[in-house]
Amino acid sequence: MKKTILILMALSAAVVSFSAAAQFAKPEDAVKYRKAAFTVMATHFGRLGAMAQGKAPFDAKVAAENAEIVADMAKLPWHAFGEGTDTAETKAKPEVWKQSAKFKEMADKLQAETVKLVAATKTGKEDAFKVAFTATAGTCKSCHDDFKNK
Ligand code: ASC
Fold first, then answer.
1. Whole-prediction pTM value?
2. Whose CA is nearest to atom 7 of ligand 1?
3. Domain boundaries 24-147, corresponding CATH code
4. Residues with CB under 6 A from ligand 1
5. Burial of 26 (0-12, 13-18, 19+ CB in 10 A)
6. What is the model's pLDDT at position 10?
7. In 35, 60, 82, 138, which residue has its Cα 20 to 30 A from 53's Cα atom?
8. How far is the CA of 42 from the centre of ligand 1 (A)?
């Protein structure tokens, strides 16, 4: 019992320090971190895209594995868009900081869509997967249009 309590305490400390990791040592570190999250996200989203476009056969299990990684990555980049991280080498538009409420809305929307995408892959239904994929891709695109330089 005591051990369980100790483990729970250690876990909650880990959660707290994760949110505290919102700070990075240098702006470049934040930029590197968010780019890495987007790169991994795009890689696995691309694999889903191949299935959605019929370039790869639909396999619900593979789709679910990829969608889960996308959903996990979708949680990560946002805390790395702190003040002062607009100066490093980035394609992020100044609007990320000027319209931060709208940017946050987009980030939240992406996370919600990717959760739905995971659920859709788990139904095993190709049509449901395609619908959720299209919705997610639309969310990527509209955020890029407003907040990312080409
Ligand atoms: C991808 C990818 C994006 C989005 C976007 C959707 O596969 O890398 O950034 O889809 O192109 O419109």
1. 0.85
2. 46
3. 1.20.120.10
4. 42, 45-46, 49, 137, 140-141
5. exposed
6. 62
7. 35
8. 7
